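Practice problem: YceI family protein
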Amino acid sequence: MSTPEPAQITVFTFKDGLLARLAHDLRLSLGRFEIRRDGTALSGRFWPASLKVDGVVGKDGRVDVEGLGASDKAKIQRNITDEILLTAQHPEVSFAGALTPGGVLDGRLVMLGKTVPVRAPVRVEGDRLHAEFTLVPSQWGIAPYKALAGAIKLQDRLVVALDLPADPDAGGEATPDPCTWKSP
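Answer key — structure tokens:
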């Protein structure tokens, strides 16, 4: 039996503004997280300081890992941790909710000390669980990041995608109860 792919959480940001053509849509990966399921209840702990820039997302949806140099990636990560998510003061993001019988994850996300309801459909594909949340950062008091006096900025939305083994222990379709997924 092959080892299942590890749990992954990715974040997609989208450019905006007058000079958006000079900016990039990005994919980031969350390096540290824990998601627990007990029956239909789900909870999660996420450490945003562990976000890493994977690369630039092209119009075709592919990620160009060489699209940014190491110094640009480091600068983006510093902006995220120091200016946007203020990880020194708010080192953890949390989620508490439940999976409804209709396959929807419904809960509350706590970020920067503010709680906002979130919902996402969950689908099973083979031995994987997938969910995508569209988040509006301004709901947590986060202004869209701007550069060049606002000529380049990020949209006030991002997509968080979860890709989890259906069974965190064996990679099969039947998930034990309770269970935990952790970052690789």
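Discussion: Residues 70-84 form the longest helix (15 residues). Students who identified this feature from the tokens alone can consider the problem solved.
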